[in-house]
Amino acid sequence: MSSNISVLLADDHYLITDILSAFLEAESNISVDAAHTLEEAKEKLRAGKHDIALIDYRMPGVTDTSFVGELAKESPNTKILVFSGAIPDWLAMQIVEAGASGYIPKSMSAQSIVNIICLVKSGQSFIPASLMQFANKKQRSVESLSTLEYQITKMIATGAVNKEIARELNLSDTTVKMHVRSIFSKLDVRNRTEAAIKARHFGIPE
């Protein structure tokens, strides 16, 4: 049977590309082209028609989520899947929000990767359950903030102290302190440092 799913597999570890390529190609409808750097992946996307690009986040040349858009420019019709051994949920969510069709933890089985490739080829996207839980928690937390609390949270995320917030928003110090306590409760954090970290992880400020 001729192949009808063309996959570009990009990972800097040759062992992974060799073993995973062999497994994927054992599936009669999948063919694999391998790359080992971001630049090589771009070149191969320009040179051929790939349905899916399976990209390792820790690969040389990948420094932030902008690589998703860079690859999309090279081949707009290629669906991008990102996989990695260990990245935090907030970063995986940013990758998806940057335009990837899904995120695959490397802890998943090779057969699961085959199933996800087929799912994405059919026009669906894939987000693991842990990432969905994070996304739901993020949405609930952000939606629970009032408009003023959201403004204050943005300022906390940039390092502003209460006096600066009060001056910028024309509020009393007491009012700011009251809202900061409410923000800590809604974000489930104990202090400003934790609030700033979680706010940035949740995409605040935007």
Describe the structure.
- With 206 residues, the protein is α/β, with parallel strands linked by helices.
- The chain has 2 domains: 5-134, 3-Layer(aba) Sandwich (Rossmann fold); 145-201, Orthogonal Bundle (Arc Repressor Mutant, subunit A).
- It contains 10 helices and 5 strands; from the N terminus they run βαβαβαβαβαααααα.
- It has helices spanning 14-26, 38-47, 66-74, 89-97, 110-121, 129-144, 147-157, 162-169, 173-187, 192-201; strands spanning 5-10, 30-35, 52-56, 79-84, 102-105.
- It has a 5-stranded parallel β-sheet with strand order 2-1-3-4-5, sandwiched between helices.
- Strand 4, helix 4 (89-97) and strand 5 form a beta-alpha-beta unit.
- Helix 4 crosses helix 6 (129-144), helix 7 crosses helix 9 and helix 8 packs across helix 9 (173-187).
- The protein is elongated and about 65 Å long.
- The mean pLDDT is 90.
Provide a short characterization of the protein structure.
The protein is an alpha/beta fold and 206 residues long.
Largest sheet, order of strands side by side? Answer: 2-1-3-4-5
CATH class value of the largest domain: Alpha Beta
Task: Give the radius of gyration.
Answer: 21 Å
Shape: elongated
Number of domains in the coordinates? 2
List the helices and strands and how they pair.
Blueprint: E1 5-10, H1 14-26, E2 30-35, H2 38-47, E3 52-56, H3 66-74, E4 79-84, H4 89-97, E5 102-105, H5 110-121, H6 129-144, H7 147-157, H8 162-169, H9 173-187, H10 192-201
Parallel strand pairs: 1-2, 1-3, 3-4, 4-5
Helix pairs in contact: 2-3, 4-6, 7-9, 7-10, 8-9
